[in-house]
């Protein structure tokens, strides 16, 4: 398996404009292993994020906390990088522009900043680009093993589970590995991933770039509520996996899945059970008993730290098992 630094060089750095390609390419391997983001903003310093730390990058490739010493990204840098990412056809990527990001081979993502063009209240496209955010796709194969066995009963049925996590705490990474484990497990479960924002499987031209298992089908770019119903009707899943629920339509579709005898694992932004219970839609789902288990994540010991696993959670919460493992 290729090292992460080699993937970054061959799947991300090659898209950067000439000067920035040389600057970021000069970073030593131990820095690239920790690289999470590369930020290009016109007339502002080139920034990189390594774990929890952010740095400006000097023209020599050195990292500094003094942002005024960083290489200043020019308009031409952004234009050339964007042309490279889009193969010189940025406006041919209509759906990607509507969503605000482009997925690269390897599952890496390029977030877009610029002027948003609306039509009848909906996003039509983007133009006048001012910033690009390259986010490195990372897999942590095996990270879900400590909790996977706790979310399955009778050897085959998966508990309807909600994973709660603040941003950048590893909920999608955990969700992806749970998907892989159940898909490739001995129970021969059919799994369907509703990947509205292409974050779980990170499909590139329809093909998952990250390991979601051999018995997994992906509905890439599909709205969550529509995708859940499509999956139940046409793909005979034992388990449906969906990221970041929160709309009324999501709650209705999730309930329909459960009523049809299909297990669901979903995620939601939040800090803990009390936090999400303040939101009417989530509180309603919890009170209804749809979720049989709830997993709370943090970054206390690094991304993916499992703070607690609740069984049979309600809007007030009960029987909790605190773990605190990373």
TrEMBL record:
Pfam name, any one: Spore_III_AA
Keywords associated with the record: ATP-binding, Nucleotide-binding
Taxonomic source organism: Syntrophothermus lipocalidus (strain DSM 12680 / TGB-C1)
InterPro entries linked to this entry: AAA+_ATPase, P-loop_NTPase, Spore_III_AA, Spore_III_AA_AAA+_ATPase
Identification of the protein by name: Stage III sporulation protein AA
Ranges for domain AAA+ ATPase: 157-297
MF terms (GO), sorted A to Z: ATP binding
